[in-house]
Amino acid sequence: MKIQSGDRGPCNLSLLFLCAVCLGLAAPAASAQAVPPASPAAGAGTVVKRTVARPWMNRTLPPERRADFLLKQMTLDEKIAMVHGVKPIPVKGYVGYVPAIPRLGIPALTLADGRAAVGNGAKDITLLPAPIAASSGWDVAVMGAYGRVLGREQWLKGTNVALGPTIDVVRVPEWGRTFESYGEDPWLNSRMAVAEIEGIQSQGPIADANMYLTMQQESNRQVEDSRVDERTLQEIYLPPFAAAIQEGHVGTIMCAYVKTNGAYSCENQYLLKDVLRTQLSFDGWVMSDWGATHSTADAANHGLDQEMPDDKFFGDKLKAAVASGQVGQSVLDGQVRDILVPMFRQWLFDKQQPGSWSANARSPEHDAFARMVAEQGTVLLKNDGGLLPLGVGASVAVIGAPGGTAPRVEGGGSSGANAPYVVSPLDGIRKRAGDAARVSYADGGDLGAAASAARNADVALVFVQTKETEGSDRPDLELPGNQDALIEAVAQAGKRTIVVLNTGGPVLMPWLDKAAGVIEAWYPGQEDGNAIAAILYGDVNPTAKLPLTFPRSAGEISTSTKEQWPGVDGRSLYSEGLNVGYRWYDSAHVQPLFPFGFGLSYTTFKLSHLVVEPAKQGGPSGATELVRLDVTNTGKRRGAEVVQVYVGHPAADREPPHQLRAIAKVDLQPGETKTVTLTLDKRSFSVYDPAAHGWAFRAGTYEILAGTSSRDLPLHQSVAIR
Ligand code: NOJ
Q: What is the pLDDT of residues 694-710, one digit of tens each?
């Protein structure tokens, strides 16, 4: 059987079913020219009647023309009112608000946070697993559905600008918002960003790509200056935003708190004008992070469109600056147009939102989806002697620290949300084990009680956690408190110990040799206990892969000096350059604890017969090379493997040893073989040339490597690219 990368195997059939039935699976965001469907995305309401007096209400016109018609009718005050939020917010909920202008039929902008759920205190929402968990599935179809669920719930809550996703590349593993991101690889983040943004925007709201740019730490984030060279900026940190704009057609981008090379993100001419507008042709709007606007004329003239959440700089001060000529009228018009175009493109003028902040956004389908994402995002890191899956009869001690009954299911900060319920690991395991086995519980706060519970059970399951949040970085990569000691005590007393991590990023594992099994369950959302039980008992065969590297020790990460993180004298030096994440481990020849792309299954796979050949005309668009290989399930259970293709540049390019450029998740029955075809695009064979300020395609001999993690690449072929 032949499949293309991106084809879905049976493991995703359940997902597709879920999507089709409950997630509306509306086509991706309507194109600029298309007329809105009679019943617009997400089943939204009435189409507003067009009037001749209001030509911008003619929905057959392109968004740009409609914006131009409207702009001509707006007074100075009306324009100023569009480019900032108001405080206090006149309606309940929402973290940002721009009032409607009824005279012209301009709807209010209602902004709400949403990374794993509608945030800002909203009730009756679904708490999905953290984005890092969702991206661990390495499956863009799942990420697309994740976006659709979020977009749908935001829309039902009356939100028309959904703040998210967070698409920054994780540079510092201690970063307090690692859980909000997709991981450490620009290409993987790009794929996930496009899928999630398309998902959100297909349901009604405008999505917002966060946080532009070099937002890689929380320490000193209001003043920190990221010092980064142009090539690194372009090759590592920019690609997810470029993809969000050019492929995801994201409507708005949030500029970050930090400075990049001396200028605040929200008044950084290079980032906002040269890169966003000239290089990437972004035609949506840039809004500031909350309180990240620092000036009036500089910010407006350098490319900021909208201040959030209030009008400190873009209210009366901007009006005065326009009056005095410090800010040109055309600059203000440009700001307003940048906001109006995506509003028209998302049909915000043409449909009435069905919901309000107090509406119920939940559904049984969304609960089921939350569980599926948690299951497919759980990474099996160690499984000595096939201890897992657990046999139904095995007696189990659940030891919480305090994760057993009070699990950590989400990260903190603006992505925090009100879970409607949380299934604890203890409840999930008890339910799954039923009467067949004894399940005991001990609070990890008492090492003696935990050790004794472990001694009296066949298997001890220790749940440990980190508390990660926006606003602060973790001080180090250790499990906080006495959790390392707890694991040691349990491992010493018990027969077999399995450690379940609820963390938002990597942790050190000094006890690794003593644990028979290790599972990274991330922040798994409301369905935590059900999902972990399904993995532990083998109802679900793990398929997830790490989207970031787990180091052996703190000294071995790429940002181990304080000049790099958290910085000295307000500056963080990105001196590791391109060597971020696995790129650094590979170029420095450092063996990580668990490499990027790693994750075990209850079955085994073999890759063979790699063939790399030029893409023929008529092949997938943009592809220059086709990579074909066979994947065989060599074990006894059905399972899915993520085939990963990395590209190694010619030495003269001075690139990291190899970089992820294509993936395919392949579902296989025991003994089954499938031939997978993946594509490599032109960018796979290009580097950014700072002298020319642009990307340059490089002919030469490349190494194409295929395997199942960044450190397990058994197949390779040299190819001459011309
Ligand atoms: C600050 C955060 O950095 C941003 O991501 C969020 O959307 C805003 N606050 C609004 O809550």
A: 999 999 999 999 999 99
